[in-house]
């Protein structure tokens, strides 16, 4: 990443570090500080700043909106970890393990409120538009999470349903981050919408990659245990494709693992991954990731700025697609 992006990241880190500092009671705000201090990518606020920079906007004027995206994202992670009964996040214990379930619920709620407090700092003339986009995004993320939970009880989830779920749960936050930056930079409506669609496609590719890394990644670089999706029967593209394309013998074995409640975790992960390998699902998933990655670049190309200005977002997109964590 170039020097400009490094500066953006430093600005984001400094602004995020100031969120809810020294507020009382400590028991409410300490988990928030802990969550925000973990070494996340800061990707969503970075997208906000990069979108504003496309149109030569001073990014310090959009930093509050960028922080709102990061705080909101981490709120969703805190609650997601609790709902998924996860143990690790970014190589560290999750909040409900380090503290308790109630801390994850209440501190997460406070983070959501803090995100809206950051949005409130938008210039008055832009606030109604930005607030509407942010609220629509927030409700969409909740919709996506509910679909994700609903899918756990089903074995007939389709690829189309899965893609809509990750569009809502993951991609709309990418899109909102970018569109907000464009709006605050007074970008033409068409360019703001192109950036929104860029974010949707990039977010789809990102989540598909995340699901792939959960099965095939290196736990030392991925930051959490490999195979978590397999253990909780999460309906990812890999599992949905396996259920659809498995032969009778594979399907019987797969359904057997889905039904088991008492099993050795490593044995289940190894057995399910072996079925994925037999069905060549890693390559099929990588091809779908490439499809959405290329679609994102097409949307970015439609933004009415010089090619030189797009290079940083193109490089960021490429790094996300070929990342190991």
Describe this structure in words.
The protein is mainly alpha-helical and 325 residues long. It has one domain (3-321): Farnesyl Diphosphate Synthase (Orthogonal Bundle), CATH 1.10.600. The protein has helices spanning 3-17, 26-37, 43-54, 63-84, 95-98, 101-119, 127-151, 159-184, 189-216, 219-222, 228-231, 237-245, 248-259, 265-278, 281-301, 307-321, and strands at residues 88-89, 92-93. It has a two-stranded antiparallel sheet with strand order 1-2. Helix 1 crosses helix 4 (63-84), helix 3 (43-54) runs antiparallel to helix 4 and helix 7 (127-151) packs antiparallel against helix 8 (159-184). It is globular, with a radius of gyration of 20 Å. The two termini are 16 Å apart. The relative contact order is 0.11. The mean pLDDT is 95.
């Amino acid at each position: 990443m170039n020097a400009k992006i490094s500066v953006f990241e430093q600005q984001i880190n400094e602004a995020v570090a100031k969120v809810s500092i020294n507020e009382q009671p400590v028991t409410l705000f300490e988990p928030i500080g802990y969550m925000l201090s973990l070494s996340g990518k800061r990707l969503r606020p970075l997208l906000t700043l990069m979108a504003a920079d496309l149109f030569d906007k001073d990014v310090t004027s959009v930093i509050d909106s960028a922080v709102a995206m990061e705080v909101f994202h981490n709120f969703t992670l805190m609650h997601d970890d609790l709902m998924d009964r996860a143990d690790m996040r970014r190589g560290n214990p999750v909040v409900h393990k380090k503290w308790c379930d109630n801390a994850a619920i209440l501190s997460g709620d406070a983070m959501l409120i803090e995100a809206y407090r950051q949005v409130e700092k938008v210039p008055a003339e832009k606030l109604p538009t930005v607030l509407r986009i942010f609220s629509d995004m927030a409700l969409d993320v909740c919709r996506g999470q509910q679909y994700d939970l609903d899918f756990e009880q089903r074995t007939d989830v389709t690829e189309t349903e899965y893609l809509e779920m990750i569009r809502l749960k993951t991609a709309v936050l990418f899109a909102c981050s970018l569109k907000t930056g464009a709006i605050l930079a007074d970008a033409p409506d068409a360019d703001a919408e192109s950036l929104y669609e860029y974010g949707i496609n990039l977010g789809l590719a990102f989540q598909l990659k995340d699901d792939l890394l959960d099965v095939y990644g290196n736990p030392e670089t991925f930051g959490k245990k490999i195979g978590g999706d397999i253990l909780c029967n999460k309906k990812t593209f890999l599992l949905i494709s396996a259920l659809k394309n498995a032969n009778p013998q594979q399907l019987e074995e797969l359904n057997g693992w889905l039904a088991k409640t008492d099993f050795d975790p490593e044995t289940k992960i190894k057995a399910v991954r072996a079925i994925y390998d037999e069905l060549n699902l890693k390559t099929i998933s990588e091809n779908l990731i490439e499809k959405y990655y290329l679609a994102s670049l097409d949307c970015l190309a439609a933004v009415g700025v010089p090619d030189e200005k797009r290079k940083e977002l193109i490089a960021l997109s490429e790094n996300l697609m070929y990342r190991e964590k």
